[in-house]
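Supplementary Note 3. Input sequence used for the single-chain structure prediction.
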Amino acid sequence: MFELGDIYVDADGVVRARAGLVPNATAVLSAARRLDGRRCEAAGPAQEAFFRYHRESHGHGMPLELPEPGPTHTLGGGRCVTDAGC
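The predicted structure, written as discrete structure tokens, is reproduced below.
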């Protein structure tokens, strides 16, 4: 998730989720929610240049609230997570 820019470390050393995560990408959204707001133990003055580069290269601005997951329902033992239905 970090390598793809779905999460990043802000200037205060806190993990943040990328603004605009797709609500129906439930696995990524769920993981981002669990990490968002936690302190990154690897963050410190020596690593700030790296984390700043990462933020800038992925175009991160101010974090927005994470969207709620889209509607889901069960279909034959699997889960359908599309708004269009199954």
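DSSP finds two helices and four strands in the chain. Residues 13 and 44 are 7 Å apart (CA to CA).
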